[in-house]
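Predict structure. Chain length: 154.
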Amino acid sequence: MEQSVVLICVDPSKHSDYALDYYLKHVHKDGNVVEVVHVPEFWDCYGPMEGPSPGRLRELRQETAQTTAALRDKVTNILTAAGVQAKFEALQGMEPWETVLDFARKVNATLIVIGSRGMGKVRRTFLGSVSDSVLHHADCPVLICRHPHVQGQH
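Prediction complete.
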């Protein structure tokens, strides 16, 4: 029997926490291969004449690295406490949804789990939604978890 490869997308939000918790409580099965991915802010697209100053870019990259390390530790601790072995990958890319889907194809994911911030239709239309884009372009099922007790940012 083929192993299920579950790709769980995480970020520092409470929506992401809920998606991880939902997966562990309601979906996880022994034998699943769990891959956890985070796509941090991408700061390498700015040239010397646009965006933040070089000094500020260094600060932003350092803050992003610290946030990613803290997220890795937190998620690893949660998974370890639940008895789930997983790999954590911080992926680099300008478009998080494309980066997630490229990785999903690479590991032959059979399910993608992702949180939703619950933005309204208008805001989602203008800002885009990583979870919507993953859902519409994925080659495998996608479980979008929206926290039932947290209002979205409308």
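Summary: Residues 122-127 have pLDDT under 50 and may be disordered.
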